Amino acid sequence: VSQSRYLLSKHAWHCVHWGTKTRSDLEKGLVRSEAVRKEKSGNGFAMILKSNNQAVGMSRMMAFNRMHNYLEIGGTWIGEKWQKTFVNTEAKLLMLTYVFETIGCQRVEFRADALNFNSQRGILRLGAKYEGELRNACVLADGRKRDYKVYSIIESEWPNVKATLNWYLDKYV
User: Fold this and answer.
1) Nearest C-alpha neighbor of 15 from the set 112, 137, 93, 134
2) Which residue ranges of the chain lie beneath pLDDT 50?
3) What's the rounded Cα separation, in Å, for the pair 1 and 165?
4) N or C: fewer beta carbons within 10 Å in the chain?
């Protein structure tokens, strides 16, 4: 949470799909992320540019299921200026490399709000496959029943996904 001071100081915390409308909402999300880390069921990561030490986003590994050897990557938020750049590609490459090559997971799942078309396109661009929709999966604070689009990458797909993500990143250099 202490590393999030960069994000919070930029006043770029409004996100409709997260239900993040105030600085306090974002701070609560960061506290939840820290709790998940302490429970060892996930971990949150800040996306920090090496060039100037600027925080530009965050993402989480969550819902780690040790018995069936899979987890979910989500809760991703990227500042508007850094969306559709190398930031998400590089962050997900690092996370997926760790998940498949260090932890040895057999599956990584992604969920996107059915109304968040940018996230859905971003997940597909990573190489994830669309699996279906979870209807009325949760109720948001404003009372809206959220539907999720579900995507995944499995271990046999990882080498091709990794090569594609590296190819995308080579285009930015």
Assistant:
1) 112
2) 1-18
3) 28
4) C
How, if at all, do strands 55-65 and 145-154 pair? unpaired
Q: How far is CA 106 from CA 17, 102, 110, 155, 173, in A?
A: 28, 12, 14, 5, 31
Residue 125: CB atoms within 10 A of its CB come to 15
162 three-state secondary structure: helix
User: How long is the chain?
Assistant: 173
pLDDT of residue 58: 85
For the entire predicted model, the pTM comes to 0.80
d(CA 35, CA 31): 6
Q: Residue 49 has which token pair?
A: 């540019």
Q: Which amino acid is at 79?
A: G
Q: Crossing angle for the helix pair 158-172 and 86-97, nearest 10 degrees?
A: 150
